[in-house]
Amino acid sequence: MIEIRGLSKRFGTKTALDNVSFTAEDGKVTGFLGPNGAGKSTTMRAALGLIRPDAGQALIDGRPFAKLAAPMAEVGAVLDAKSAHKGRSAYAHLRALAATNGIGKTRVDDVMDITGIASVKTRKAGKFSLGMSQRLSIAAALLGDPHNLVLDEPINGLDPEGVKWVRDLCRECARQGRAVLLSSHLMSEVALTADNLVIIGRGRILETTSVESFVAEHSGHTLRVITPQPDKLHAIFAQAPGITITPLPRSTGDPQQGQAFRIAGADLARTADVFARAQLVVYQFIEEQASLEDAYMALTHASAEYVSKEPIR
Ligand SMILES: Nc1ncnc2c1ncn2[C@@H]1O[C@H](COP(=O)(O)OP(=O)(O)OP(=O)(O)O)[C@@H](O)[C@H]1O
Q1: Does residue 240 sit within a domain?
Q2: ipTM
Q3: Which of 9, 109, 122, 287 could form a disulfide with 17 if both were Cys (CB 3.0 to 4.6 A apart)?
Q4: CA of 1: how far to CAs of 47, 63, 148, 166, in Å?
Q5: CATH number of the CATH domain containing 229
């Protein structure tokens, strides 16, 4: 179990973490999501004792990293895929790590098999593609057969087969009872892999929830309507509890006249019937599948540090 308790960290005048707390439970994959610069890596580095927080603490199975008796057996980490010595072969890199941590040769062979890099064991790490480097980092993380895994954007650079492999590996590790903390900035990826979600923006926790709850809350159908009679539209649903009407910005291809709205909580056929009986004029009426990515973007947009303001010209 990885417990993050009230972590705060400033770099100069920059607040990287502001009272961050959450738990990555045993037997679960915890997706750690946030836009660039949100504080994911800083939190993970603090959990691994690489950064000293200004306040709060991070505990691995109840103890700070510095107090772990056999760190590689307790927590394995992928922080930087390209951290291996460029001039060393993959095997020599893993062998050196194993030797300094009292881990035998057979485990080196095991993790090379698990991560699919046995056939390139003699190749220098500097010649590895980003995807192969990710596999090598994961092999190093697994060396000590750790009870906890901290994986910072492990799918970066992987091809679809590699992405699926990381997903299956995370699921299998959780099934074996390990705590897996997996960072990403892609909701679509995390939703397929994680049990729980921790969403962070500008160093603050925005939401901690389960994937199941997030999906149930955000992936429903909504209706999009464009009407020149917005007052009439509001009047139709004025007495309808559970139905919300939100004005939408105009999209490319929308009719020139009328105002666009999203209607949540209403059924397509019944709404069409109500519109017909009320003689509401509509220029467009469609059912949309709200995407998880949209919900996540809406949640984090206000706290995104790097947002493009201009379209590409
Ligand atoms: N060593 C450092 N010195 C100064 N500022 C730092 C340092 N490390 C991180 N920061 C700043 O702290 C904030 C959080 O950074 P962090 O790397 O934790 O974000 P992240 O969520 O991992 O982002 P990304 O997805 O881009 O990796 C950012 O504004 C970053 O610029």
Answers
A1: yes
A2: 0.96
A3: 9
A4: 11, 10, 7, 20
A5: 3.30.70.2250
Q: How many domains does the chain have?
A: 2
Return the structure tokens found at 53: 């927080």
Alpha-carbon distances of 33 from 8, 154, 243, rounded to whole Å = 18, 13, 29
Ligand 1, closest atom to CA 35? 25
User: Which domain range does residue 237 map to?
Assistant: 221-289
Nearest ligand 1 atom to alpha carbon 12:
4
Ligand 1 atom at shortest distance from the alpha carbon of 185: 25
What is the number of other CB atoms lying within 10 angstroms of the CB of residue 130? 12
Distance 83 CA to ligand 1 centre (A): 18
Strand ranges in the chain using DSSP code E only, listed in sequence order = 2-11, 14-24, 29-33, 55-60, 75-78, 148-152, 179-184, 196-201, 204-210, 221-227, 244-248, 259-264, 284-289
Ligand 1 centre from 118 Cα, in Å?
A: 34
Examine residue 304 and state whether it is found in any structural domain, yes or no.
Answer: no
Distance CA(198)–CA(24), nearest Å, equals: 9
Express each pLDDT in 172-223 by its tens digit: 999 999 999 999 988 888 888 999 999 999 999 999 999 888 877 777 788 9
Pocket of ligand 1 (CB under 6 A): 11, 14, 16, 34, 36-42, 185, 305
113 and 59 both lie in a single domain? yes
Domain membership of residue 312 (yes or no) is no
Which of 11, 33, 156, 205 for a ligand 1 pocket mutation test, highest count of atoms within 8 Å of Cβ? 11
- Which amino acid residue places its CA nearest to atom 17 of ligand 1? 41
Atom of ligand 1 nearest to the CA of 200: 21
Mean pLDDT along residues 98-103? 91
Cα(36) to ligand 1 centroid in Å equals 8
> Of 184, 209, 234, which one is at a domain's C-terminal end?
209
Q: Residue length, the chain?
A: 313
User: How big is the CA angle at 119 (ends 139 and 189), to the nearest 5 degrees?
Assistant: 45
